Amino acid sequence: AYPGTYTADVLAASLLFDSITTEVSPAYFKSRMLKVKTLNDPGFYNTTHAADLLSIYSICFLDTSVATGFAFYDTIFETITSADARSRMHTLLFQLYYYKQREKELGIYADWANAHTGLVTNEYVKRQLAALAKVMPGKKVPELSNEDIEGNTISLTTTALANSKTILAIWSPNCEHCAEEIPALKRIWKK
């Protein structure tokens, strides 16, 4: 197999499955060198199968635990030494999780990126992850305040502490499915 081929790309992705129990042989080292060379080739990230392969491998690793997810990213970014390839890998990971709405994977990736800020070289991804970290499931809700219908300023914290249940509905008047939820919210409010 040669760099830039489909076979090389598959081998590069299989780097993520290498384990300590792998038999160390000349064939292993040749395969490993091809994987490292392919992952450091910025052109690898322009292939259609790069995202597919990464998606499959990330699902296998990230379904178990945060620690396993961190090891997954550590393996990737210890292997990729090219700044351009590293930036492209960050773009690929972010797009894979964000646009496919994979919150668990995105959360683990955001936590890893926060703990390894020096390894996140893509400024766009860094800004996006920082913004998303504030609103990801399981994170503390930012303090919000607004005026109620009588003109009094109220905060989310004050309202939540004063009531046993609080519903926070964020919607837009020109959002069709938001408007469809209003009758259901009214029924809940009356209860």
Overall pLDDT confidence: 76
Helix amount: 55-70%
Which class best fits the helix and strand makeup?
mainly alpha
Question: How much of the sequence is in beta strands?
Answer: under 5%
What does the overall shape look like? elongated
Enumerate how many helices there are, as a single number: 9
Described by strand count, sense and barrel closure, the largest sheet is: 2 strands, antiparallel
Number of strands: 2
SSE string, helices as H and strands as E: HHHHHHHEEHH
Distance between the first and last residues' Cα: 66 Å
What does the model show?
The protein is mainly α and 191 residues long. Helix content is 60%, strand content 3%. The chain has 9 helices and 2 strands; from the N terminus they run H-H-H-H-H-H-H-E-E-H-H. The protein has a two-stranded antiparallel sheet. It starts with 5 loop residues before the first helix and ends with a helix.
Brief summary of the model shown:
The chain has 191 residues and is mainly alpha-helical. The protein contains nine helices and two strands. Helix 1 crosses helix 2, helix 1 packs parallel to helix 3 and helix 4 packs across helix 6.
Topology, pairings included?
Layout: H1 6-14, H2 26-39, H3 48-62, H4 66-79, H5 83-99, H6 103-115, H7 123-133, E1 145-147, E2 153-155, H8 156-162, H9 176-190
Antiparallel strand pairs: 1-2
Task: Fill in the keyword field for this structure.
191 residues; single chain; 3% strand; two-stranded antiparallel ribbon; mainly alpha; 2 strands
